[in-house]
Amino acid sequence: MTPALSALLLLVPVLALALLLLQPGLAEWLEATDAAPLAIDGLYAKDDRIFADRFRKLAVEWWQQPDPLGHSQVDLGPGTLLARPILVAGLATGAGVGLEEEVWARESLRLGAGSLARALVSDGSIHLARDCKVQRWIHGDTEVTLGERCQVSARITAGERILLSAGCLSQLVSAPSIEWQSPRRPMSMEIPSHARRWLRRRRIPETGSNWRISRQETTGGTVFVNGDLILDAEADIDFPLVVRGNLYIRRGALIAGDLKAHGNMVVEGSTVVGNLCCSGNLLVGEGSWVQGCLRGDSLVWLGDEVVVGRPERPEAVVGNRILLAGTGTVHGRLRALAGWVEVES
After folding, report:
1. What is the pLDDT of residues 258-289, one digit of tens each?
2. Cβ atoms within 10 A of the Cβ of 51, count?
3. Is residue 310 within 8 Å of 333, Cβ to Cβ?
4. Which of 113, 136, 252, 325 is 20 to 30 A from 55, alpha carbon to alpha carbon?
5. Three-class SS string for the chain?
6. HSE of 62, CA atoms in CB hemisphere, 13 A
7. Residues 6 or more apart from 229 whose CB is under 8 A from it?
């Protein structure tokens, strides 16, 4: 055996022992410490009406040309199929109509049950009866109403209000006021027995080897918590809080400041003045009001009588999948990154 090989064989156990001794420090160094909010795509600054605006710019010249429909109020009977762009003063259809190209109505636009359309834009309101499908987008300058089980593959936008019924699906929904109506579903709130409470006036529970609290002034006074944490009506939080676990906010809590969890987050009937984001599921239960943005890296569930944002300050709700239950309102934007914005049926 050569001297070099002998030295190498002696070095291996020494390095292994050194790594073993350094393991606790390395684990702490690699621990998630990110205090920045998870990215919320575009918030409300992005103009979600881009497709409707581009189509109107393209179609405005067509209004100067003669058209068989006469740009008047048009009523289409059940089962009618049109395979060209339509520009009318107003449109109402029977059931099962097929509109294979874009439709622009200067007034109201109404589709009968089970109709299929490519894209719809109205200078007034749009109403879709149950089971309608739109392959691309919808925009109404005033109001958009979707009946039960309607599906819009890309986006729904409105200048004032959107109303979604049970079973509706879309990828993006944007308006100053988005409302939904579906069966009311109770939220299951399971709090593990080992979760600790944050008490009034910044008093904190005892710390242990696997659960500690630290404040880092270098990150704007953000407080980091290891483990699962409970905030209830007695909690006094008016600073940024990062939980390296699951975060549970019990009914009646009033929380100021941005909250982030590296696990799941559950909000039960509380008011939060700030942003909520988590790396898992974000569940917002009955009667909650969140005045900031919401982001869940997996599922975002909004329950009965939930309100997000304010009319004068729209916010964004972003998740891989968004479920809406009961009746509620979002002032701003709903965006599903990998699945659907879905109203439970």
Report:
1. 899 999 999 998 999 989 999 999 999 989 99
2. 18
3. no
4. 113
5. CCHHHHHHHHHHHHHHHHHHHHHHHHHHHHCCCCCCCCCCCCCCCCCCCHHHHHHHHHHHHHHHCCCCCCCCEEEECCCCEECCCEEECEEEECCCCEECCCEEECCCEEECCCCEECCEEECCCEEECCCCEECCEEEECCEEEECCCCEECCEEEECCEEEECCCCEECEEEEEEEEEECCCCCCCCCCCCCCEEECHHHCCCCCECCECEEEEHHHCCEEEEECCEEECCCCCCECCEEEECCEEECCCCEEECCEEECCCEEECCCEEECCEEECCCEEECCCCEECCCEEEEEEEEECCCCEECECCECEEEEEEEEEECCEEEEEEEEEECCCCEEECC
6. 19
7. 195, 196, 197, 198, 243, 245, 246, 247, 248
Q: List, in sequence order, every residue forming a beta bridge with 231; answer none if it has no partner.
A: 198, 249
For the cut 50, the answer to whether the pLDDT of residue 213 exceeds it is yes
Is residue 200 pLDDT above 70, yes or no? no
Q: Where are the domains of the chain?
A: 50-181, 196-343
Burial 287-318 (b: 16+ CB within 10 A, else e): bbbbbbbbbbbebbbbbbbbbbbeeeebbbbb
User: Hey, what are 135's tokens?
Assistant: 């392959």
Amino acid at 95: A
* 129: its two tokens: 């009866």
- In sequence order, the β-bridge partners of residue 247 are 229, 265
Query: Tell me: the pLDDT tens digits for 96-109?
Result: 999 999 999 988 99
Q: Which residue has the tokens 């600073």?
A: 239
What percentage of the chain exceeds 90 in pLDDT?
49
